[in-house]
Amino acid sequence: MAESRLTRISLVIIVLFITGIILRIARPVLLPFIVALFISYAVSPLLDWLVRLKVPKLLAIISILILTFSFIYLLGLLLFSSGKYFATEFPKYSRQVNSLMAELIDWLERLPFKVSVPTIISQLNVDKLTGLLLGTLGSFLTFLGKLLMVFVFVIFILAGRDKLPAKIATALAEDRAVYVNRVVSSINRQVQKYLAVKTLVSLLTGVLATFILLLFDVDFALLLGFLTFILNYIPSIGSIIATVLAVLIAFFQFGNSLVPVWVLILLGLIQTVIGNFVDPRLMGRSLDLSPLLVIFSLIFWGWLWGVAGMFLAVPLLAVLKIVFENVPSLKFVAVLMSK
Q: Do 213 and 225 form a contact (C-beta atoms < 8 A)?
């Protein structure tokens, strides 16, 4: 019995290892396919609406693809131009950063015990930081430049999505086919609702954050608003990171004034109200993902697929939890993924 259990555990470890290698090697194909899957889920309600209006399905798909491509392309241009401006302007903050570091070192030296952090602080290099930022933006824009494969996948996914129930009915026995189709339909509805609500809430948070930053004339307001929109997909952690980034920029820009304090208060109020009241009310129920699992997912997918993997990490995790909740034999995994 012990040998059998050890064999199963060993096989699971080997399968996971091989799966990781396959995911790493197959990144050029799998990454566009996953992105296409998310896009198809996001635009499916619009396609259904157009079909109900008696618009030919092919024309509806082409119209949706043109709108989606235009939106992503403009979004990429905005991100890249804002990122380049941030990278060129950020070195101007080096004087404030150095002044802050000097004050911190002076305060640490007055402590009754020794703290050896000046060496670490002295390695802080703004030029390296901006270079890293530009490299990240470059890799992200390289991915955006390969959207052709993504939209090829989207076309075939949207064109063939209505055929899946019939294929399942043909492939399986009647009772089994009805059950599988019911589970697949439930998963599709929940994934569509999650993506739609999360995108709407994230967009609302990003727009409000941008308005507040523009109101106080904080630098890089558009870029920080976009980062708030993206980071809001990450439960709890993302909103904290977005707020901290905005407050730090405001502090470096305005110094010891009330502006960073007001930015912190207002952004924190927005995140609290939307995160605790608006989001749960629209979602109907919370996915309750474990923060430790979220962090691990970000690290894992970031290592596996780079910046694009980090953007997809939490939505992938949420979709997996929805799938596990709808499969009785895997519900225990969904429970383990909760807080």
A: yes
Instruction: Write out pLDDT tens, residues 103-137.
Output: 666 766 666 656 555 444 445 555 555 555 555 55
Strand-pairing partners, residue 289, are 338
Model confidence pTM above 0.85: no
Q: For residue 225, what is the enclosing H or E element?
A: helix 221-231
- At 305, the amino acid letter reads W
Integer Cα distance of 259 and 262 in angstroms: 5
CA 116 – CA 235 distance, rounded (Å): 34
How far is 163 from 66, CA to CA, in rounded Å?
24
Q: What is the DSSP letter of 91?
A: G
Could you read off the pLDDT of 36-64 as tens digits, one per residue?
Answer: 888 888 788 788 888 888 888 888 888 88
Cβ contacts of residue 11 below 8 Å, gap of 6+?
none
- Extended beta strands in 110-250, E state: none
